[in-house]
Design goal:
By secondary structure, the chain is an alpha/beta fold. It has one domain: Metal-dependent hydrolases (TIM Barrel). 40% of the residues lie in helices and 12% in strands. The protein contains eight helices and six strands, in the order βαβαβαβαβααβαα. Strands 1-2-3-4-5-6 form a six-stranded parallel beta sheet. Helix 1 runs parallel beside helix 2. The chain is globular, with a radius of gyration of 17 Å. It starts with a strand and ends with a helix.
Length: 206
């Protein structure tokens, strides 16, 4: 069961013509349940003929979309998710949430607005990216933001992830689990079970 990188920003085929056909070929070859795509700042591609064919093919194949994007992308992802309500979108690493952001938190507000779209999910991962200090486990400066994400998205639309192997630049795999399981004490055990695996199992129909 794979969510392979397809047409990511570092590839020669990133958002190039024929994206839908390449996606179909990859899905068949690797028996994909979904795919990951890292994005640049070409927001208009989502509204292009090529982009719309790509996501129509995503819907046809029943694939989960895992996107690496930041706060400026949220309005575009919301529009896309509303256009394809049958497709589930998962944003990487709390999607632009940053503890060093200053009031009035306009970027974080963009993240929270996406909670209104029911087929947008977030990964609770990348605590070191969100924190102001990437080695300062358990990243207590991020916890109020995680609480807000939990309150707005609910336990059914958050998915824990380790970010392995890049996580090892800042903490151990065990710490990437316990920063959530042990230190996010505002999330009750029943909801933690959903976030730690049950939600992803449901999305992948595993």
């Amino acid at each position: 069961m794979q969510l392979a990188d397809v047409g990511c920003s570092w590839t020669d085929t990133y958002h190039a013509p024929g994206a839908a056909e390449r996606l179909a070929a990859a899905a068949e070859k690797y028996q994909l349940k979904g795919y990951t795509q890292y994005l640049k700042d070409d927001y208009e591609w989502f509204e292009s003929d090529e982009g719309l064919r790509f996501f129509a093919k995503t819907a046809e194949l029943g694939l989960v979309v895992s996107l690496a994007f930041g706060a400026p992308w949220h309005a575009h992802v919301r529009k896309l998710a509303q256009r394809f309500p049958e497709v589930n979108f998962i944003g990487h690493h709390m999607t632009g949430t940053r503890a060093n952001e200053q009031p009035p938190y306009s970027n974080f507000d963009e993240v929270l607005k996406s909670a209104a779209v029911p087929n947008i999910y977030l990964k609770l991962s990348g605590f070191a990216y969100v924190s102001q200090v990437d080695w300062d486990y358990p990243y207590s400066d991020t916890h109020w933001m995680v609480r807000k994400l939990y309150e707005q998205f609910g336990p059914e639309r958050l998915c824990w992830a380790s970010d392995y192997p890049p996580v090892l630049w800042s903490m151990t795999y065990k710490q990437s689990l316990e920063v959530f399981r042990t230190h996010c004490t505002f999330i009750p055990p029943k909801d933690q079970e959903l976030i730690l695996g049950a939600n992803m199992q449901r999305l992948l129909k595993a």
